[in-house]
Amino acid sequence: MAPGSTHSAKNPSSRAPDVLIAGAGIIGLSIALEFHARGARVLVLERDTALSHASTAAAGMLAANDAHNPSALRDICQLSAELYPAFLQRIEQFSGIAVPFHTDTTLRYYLDGTIDRLAEHSLDPRELAIALLAAVRATPVELREHSEFSPATTDVSPASVVYATGAWAPHELSEGLPVRPRKGQMLRVRLPPSLKNLREVHRSDAIYIVPRTLGPKAGSALIGATTEDAGFDTSTHPRDLTHLRSLAAELLPALASEVDAPQLDAWAGLRPHTPDRLPVLGRIKLGSFEPGSRRFLATGHYRNGILLAPATAILIADLIEGKLPALDLTPFSPARF
User: Fold this and answer.
1) How far apart are alpha carbons 173 and 157 in whole angstroms?
2) Which of 6, 56, 90, 130 has its CA 20 to 30 A from that of 306?
């Protein structure tokens, strides 16, 4: 692909982009950065503001070995975890902002009472978002916020289009693509004195506790998250947050006290959920799009969008460039629906 020459929406290129990406969440911007590294002209359109939804609502666990994940996710999770150091290094190279890991260990609790100790990183997605957006803005990638992509009205004619729209399925595919929002509420609490040195994630099937160990949020922990079919509602409810705290206290009893572990904030995000809990990665062959369409999907990452961003970017870029992807993408094909 030809080298890019665009610098920002203020000085748009007169040439059509090689790749147009619909959606500026972590998946869309990671794909944009990957294509930039390959010399492509890239345009990203975002219906809202960049990284304003699930990308910054997550806890940031890179849970590649979570037994709760579908078995078909194992290889792509492992690949993405291996890619993460280079992914963060690339972001720092362009942005000048280092994104640290806050924890390196997870205690995984099972229903039979056993506990595994996993070598597993976590990071703060909001720190990642700041650095990723700065990295993209430091490249010739053109990012247009408050600009929703429509094949009928867009003023550009890209060679390829990637839909990375998260829980917001593209209008022209909404009937054939079963990606729906799955709401998750969570809260952040100040750690009580007895847990002030907490340095590992605690996670079961029902709850997770993710400490922040660096920066201004050090000494606090995230507790999450609910799983709700509530459409696009992102409100939080005290009763649900109280229930999350009670589940967390089953793992770490000191979190039960709202006096010793006061709530600092709370929010909800919308995970892009599919019926089989697998992402949708590949060429679109649905509805009115012909089999040779240059339109691709990169969505439906559900709970693993932060983890899977590096692998998704490389796999989608390889697919669009006609290269053999490092993994078999059949389990994630849009055609399965």
Assistant:
1) 19
2) 6
